[in-house]
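TA notes, week 10

Several of you asked for a full example with nothing omitted. So below is the full record: structure tokens for the whole chain, then the designed sequence directly under it. When grading your own attempts, check the secondary structure regions first.
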């Protein structure tokens, strides 16, 4: 009995420590990425859940600053790739180079690309060609890279944060649905309000220094293991399942707006993403259980990029977030 109590106390201390560490990371990131607490929280949830993130927002909103600051706060290596139409898969993954030694012997050596890092920022990913976009698929899904028949494992944790500009479509290659589904979240970055903009302008006068690490890589990996062990009740699983079904226009329980505007709804992978994210949010909030609030808070960023709309929706200016909100309310009713 005493052993069980001791284990419970150890778990409680671990959860409290993780919550405090997450708050310190959040505060440190927010010192440079100002006025975007919701974006910071969603990115932290994705990191602890072990998923990749698609950041969508206009240029100049600080997306690179956000990702770099996060990697510094967690003592993770960081690499940035500027996606352009002439970017080749080898520029991201790496290539083999023919070396010659002192005796004239020759052999191939694998030169690692920027994907061999902990946090990879793929800036303006929709400017890269489909061939280069697909080169990231194996790395994102399998955490490994295969080149010339050789497989190279990526060091954990591995996080891809891709950005894209939603207002400029000329000369871009929209991500296919299969690749969008690889991202745990799509996070929308909105322009700052007046107070945040004033703070940003004030910070621009100060020299930017590297952020001290708040959480070690080993602690982050341990936290990810703890996230997977967070229990979730049958009621919360049923809520997530009903929500996913409500996004499908062929389902009888789907809202009328979904039947009218949605071609394809979210897949089971979307349900898995929502459950994993809800567990991560519960844990960094200091709880060992998933609540309705967790699912409600994260359903938009977990599902918005998984809804394929029809032409009528585009013409009517329908927002995916509004559809997800309707689906949640319908699922909550049972």
């Amino acid at each position: 009995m005493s052993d069980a109590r001791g284990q419970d106390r150890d778990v409680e201390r671990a959860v409290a420590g993780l919550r405090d560490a997450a708050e310190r990371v959040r505060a440190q990131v927010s010192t440079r990425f100002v006025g975007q607490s919701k974006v910071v929280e969603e990115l932290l949830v994705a990191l602890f859940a072990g998923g990749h993130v698609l950041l969508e927002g206009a240029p100049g909103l600080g997306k690179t600053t956000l990702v770099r600051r996060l990697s510094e706060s967690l003592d993770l290596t960081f690499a940035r790739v500027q996606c352009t139409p002439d970017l080749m898969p080898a520029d991201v993954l790496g290539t083999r180079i023919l070396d010659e030694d002192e005796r004239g012997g020759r052999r191939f050596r694998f030169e690692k690309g920027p994907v061999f890092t902990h946090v990879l920022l793929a800036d303006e990913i929709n400017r890269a060609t489909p061939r280069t976009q697909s080169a990231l698929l194996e790395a994102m899904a399998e955490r490994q890279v295969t080149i010339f028949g050789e497989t190279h494992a990526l060091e954990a944790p591995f996080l891809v944060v891709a950005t894209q500009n939603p207002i400029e479509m000329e000369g871009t290659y929209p991500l296919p649905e299969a690749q969008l589904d690889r991202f745990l979240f799509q996070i929308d970055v909105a322009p700052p309000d007046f107070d945040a903009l004033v703070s940003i302008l004030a910070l621009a006068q100060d020299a930017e220094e590297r952020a001290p690490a708040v959480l070690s890589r080993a602690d982050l990996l341990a936290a990810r293991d703890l996230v997977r062990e967070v229990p979730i009740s049958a009621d919360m699983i049923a809520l997530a399942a009903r929500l996913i079904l409500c996004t499908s226009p062929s389902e009888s329980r789907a809202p009328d707006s979904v039947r009218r505007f949605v071609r394809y709804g979210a897949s089971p992978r979307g349900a898995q993403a929502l459950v994993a994210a809800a567990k991560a949010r519960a844990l960094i909030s200091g709880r060992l259980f998933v609540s309705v609030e967790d699912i409600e808070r994260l359903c938009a960023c977990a599902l918005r990029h998984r809804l394929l709309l029809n032409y009528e929706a585009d013409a009517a200016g329908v927002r995916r977030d509004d559809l997800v909100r309707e689906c949640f309310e319908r699922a909550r009713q049972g």
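The radius of gyration is 21 Å. Use that as a sanity check on your answer.
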